[in-house]
C-alpha cells in the first residue's frame, strides 16, 4: 500500500487486525506503531483517515468539544482535568488543571494557547505520530483548552521538518474552520477560537516553552528567566498556556470518556497512559502507548524484546538517566523514574545491550546537549562542552587528575546556575552511568579498555595519576 511502509498492523484486544488507514493516510516510514500496551490515543490509528474530518467525526471526533462548549462551563472543564489528574506529557509533569486555572484567573483581554510540537528530542516520535496519525485529536484538545482558559486564539507550533505533520495539522485546522468547529461562533455558540499552525526550527532547546514563545514572537529562540511565567506573561506578553501535543490529545480523550476512565490506568500520582518511543537494541523499534506505572521490564516485549542481553535503559532522552538491568522493575512513572535519576522527559526509552559502551553512550547524549545549548547561559555553553572534553579524555585513556571529581562538581554547579532545564538535565546520562557502571569508566580511563568492546580506543598513554573517586554518587543530587 502506497505510503504505508512504516505502519505495522495493530491488533485490537479481540485479536482482530485493524484495517490500515485509507490511501494518503499512512505515517512517515520512520514511525512504527507497536502492538500491545494500553492504546487510547492510538486506538483510532489505522481506523481513521487522518486527512478526513468526516472520518474523525465518524469515530466520535469533536463530541468532546461540543460537550465542553454546549454543556459545560470553562470551570467545569478544568474540574474534569483536575478530577482526571492529568499531568503534562511534555516532560515536567505539571498538573494541567493548575496551569489552566492560573491563566483563567489572570486578568487580560487576550489569552493564547500554544500546542508544543517542536519535538525537540530526536529519540522521541510520539508527538509526531499523533500529528500524522490523528491530527484532529490534537486540534480538538487545543480548542477545549482555549475554551477552558478563555483564549480566543490558539497556535499549533510544529517542527518545520515534520512536513507530513505540518500538512495534516494545517488541513485539519482548515477543515474545522469550514465546518464551524473553529473560528468565529464555534458550533453556533458565542465562543470564538482562531486556530493557526506555525512552523519552527527543530533545535532541541526550541521545545523549551519560553524559547518556543520567544521564537514565535519574532525573537531569537532562547529561553527567558522565569518569572514571568508564560501563564502570566507569555507570547506577545499575553497570558499563555503552553501544552504538549500528547497532553492535549488526552484532554480530548478525557472529555469524551470521563475523568474516571482516564484515571483507571496509571499510578496514584501519575494517571492515564503515555506514548513511549522504544528504540536502540530492540527487535522492533516504535511507538506504543502504555499505562503509567508499567514496569520498565514489561516495555521490552512490546518492541519484540532486546536484541541482546539488556544492559541498561536510557529513559527520557538527552536529559534522561540510565537504569541498569537489575532495576528494570522500576515503574515507568513520573515519581518512580525521578527517584532513580531518570525522568519521563520526551517519552523515549533507549535500550542498550552488552555490546553498548555506557561511557560512549553518555558522551553521545552529552555532546547532543552541548551542541544544542543555545549559548545564552555561559555555564551551560561552556560547562556542557567541558564535560564532553572530560569524557573524551577518559575514553582516550588520557585522564587528568581530578577528572572524575570535575564531572560531578561541574554538573552540580551547572544545575545550580541553570537558566533552563537543558542545563540541569544534560549531565544525567553521564552521572547515572558513572554511578551504575563505574567499572566501564575505570577500564577506559586506567587501561584504555572498552569493557563492551564497542569503542576503538587509541593506544593507552601513560597514566599521569591514579584515578580515584569513581564511587557512586546520587544522580538525583547532580
Ligand atoms: C530542552 C527542553 C526541550 C523541550 N522540548 C519539548 C518538546 O519538544 N515538546 C514539549 O511539549 N515540551 C518540551 N519541553 C517542555 C516544555 O518546556 C514545557 O514544559 C511543555 O511543553 C509544557 O507542556 P505540558 O505541561 O503539557 O507537558 C522541553 C523542555 C526543555 C528544557
Ligand atoms: S541553560 Fe543552556 S540551553 Fe538553557 S538558556 Fe542557558 S545556554 Fe540556553
Question: Your description of this structure?
Answer:
The protein is of the alpha/beta class and 478 residues long. It folds into 3 domains: 53-263, 3-Layer(aba) Sandwich (Rossmann fold); 273-353, Ubiquitin-like (UB roll); 358-477, de novo design (two linked rop proteins) (Up-down Bundle). Helix content is 38%, strand content 12%. It has 18 helices and 9 strands. It has helices at residues 53-58, 63-71, 74-84, 96-105, 126-133, 135-149, 163-178, 209-216, 245-257, 259-263, 296-299, 334-339, 358-372, 378-395, 403-417, 421-425, 428-436, 438-447, and strands at 112-117, 153-159, 194-200, 240-244, 273-280, 286-291, 310-315, 321-324, 348-353. The strands form 2 sheets. A 5-stranded mixed beta sheet has the order 6-5-9-7-8. It has a 4-stranded parallel beta sheet with strand order 3-2-1-4, with helices on both faces. A hairpin with a 5-residue loop joins strand 7 and strand 8. Helix 5 (126-133) packs across helix 7 (163-178) and helix 13 (358-372) runs antiparallel to helix 14 (378-395). The radius of gyration is 23 Å and the shape is globular. The model is unreliable at 1-24 and 459-478 (pLDDT under 50). Bound molecules: flavin mononucleotide (FMN) and iron/sulfur cluster. Residues 205, 222-223, 373-377, 380-381, 418-420, 422-423 line the site of iron/sulfur cluster. Flavin mononucleotide is lined by residues 88-92, 94, 116, 118-120, 204-205, 207-209, 242-244, 247, 420-422.
Amino acid at each position: 500500500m502506497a505510503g504505508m511502509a512504516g505502519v505495522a498492523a495493530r491488533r485490537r484486544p479481540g485479536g482482530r487486525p485493524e484495517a490500515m488507514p485509507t490511501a494518503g493516510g499512512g505515517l512517515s516510514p520512520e514511525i512504527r506503531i507497536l502492538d500491545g500496551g494500553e492504546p487510547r490515543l492510538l486506538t483510532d490509528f489505522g481506523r481513521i483517515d487522518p486527512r478526513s474530518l468526516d472520518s474523525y467525526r465518524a469515530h466520535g471526533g469533536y463530541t468532546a468539544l461540543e460537550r465542553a462548549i454546549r454543556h459545560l462551563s470553562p470551570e467545569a472543564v478544568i474540574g474534569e482535568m483536575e478530577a482526571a489528574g492529568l499531568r503534562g506529557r511534555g516532560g515536567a509533569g505539571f498538573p494541567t488543571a493548575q496551569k489552566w486555572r492560573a491563566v483563567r484567573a489572570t486578568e487580560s483581554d487576550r489569552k493564547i494557547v500554544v500546542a508544543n510540537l517542536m519535538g525537540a528530542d530526536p529519540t522521541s516520535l510520539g508527538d509526531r505520530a499523533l500529528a500524522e496519525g490523528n491530527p484532529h485529536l490534537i486540534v480538538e484538545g487545543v480548542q477545549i483548552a482555549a475554551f477552558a482558559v478563555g483564549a480566543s486564539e490558539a497556535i499549533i507550533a510544529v517542527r518545520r521538518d515534520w512536513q507530513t505533520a505540518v500538512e495534516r495539522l494545517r488541513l485539519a485546522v482548515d477543515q474545522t474552520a469550514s465546518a464551524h468547529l473553529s473560528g468565529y461562533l464555534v458550533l453556533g455558540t458565542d465562543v470564538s477560537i482562531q486556530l493557526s499552525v506555525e512552523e519552527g526550527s527543530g533545535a532541541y532547546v526550541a521545545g523549551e516553552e519560553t524559547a518556543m514563545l520567544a521564537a514565535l514572537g519574532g525573537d531569537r529562540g532562547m529561553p527567558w528567566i522565569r518569572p514571568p511565567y508564560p501563564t502570566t506573561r507569555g507570547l506577545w506578553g499575553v497570558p499563555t498556556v503552553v501544552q504538549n501535543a500528547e497532553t492535549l490529545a488526552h484532554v480530548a480523550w478525557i472529555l469524551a470518556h470521563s475523568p474516571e476512565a482516564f484515571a483507571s490506568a496509571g499510578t496514584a500520582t501519575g494517571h492515564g497512559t503515555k506514548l513511549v518511543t522504544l528504540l536502540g537494541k530492540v527487535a522492533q523499534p516504535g511507538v506504543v502507548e502504555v499505562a503509567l506505572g508499567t514496569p520498565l521490564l514489561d516495555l521490552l516485549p512490546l518492541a519484540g524484546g532486546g536484541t541482546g542481553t539488556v544492559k541498561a535503559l536510557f529513559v527520557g532522552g538527552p536529559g534522561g538517566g540510565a537504569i541498569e538491568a537489575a532495576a528494570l522493575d522500576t515503574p515507568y512513572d513520573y515519581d518512580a523514574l525521578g527517584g532513580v535519576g531518570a525522568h519521563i522527559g520526551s517519552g523515549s526509552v533507549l535500550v542498550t545491550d552488552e555490546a553498548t559502551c555506557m561511557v560512549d553512550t553518555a558522551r553521545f547524549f552529552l555532546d547532543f546537549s552541548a551542541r544544542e545549548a543555545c549559548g545564552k547561559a555561559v555555564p551551560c555553553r561552556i560547562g556542557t562542552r567541558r564535560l564532553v572534553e572530560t569524557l573524551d579524555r577518559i575514553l582516550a585513556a588520557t585522564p587528568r587528575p581530578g577528572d572524575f571529581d570535575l564531572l560531578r562538581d561541574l554538573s552540580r554547579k551547572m544545575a545550580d546556575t541553570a537558566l533552563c532545564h537543558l542545563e540541569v538535565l544534560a549531565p544525567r546520562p553521564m552521572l547515572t552511568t558513572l554511578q551504575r557502571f563505574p567499572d566501564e569508566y575505570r577500564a577506559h580511563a586506567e587501561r584504555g579498555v572498552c569493557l563492551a568492546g564497542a569503542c576503538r580506543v587509541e593506544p593507552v598513554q601513560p597514566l599521569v595519576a591514579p584515578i580515584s573517586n569513581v564511587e557512586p554518587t546520587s544522580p538525583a543530587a547532580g
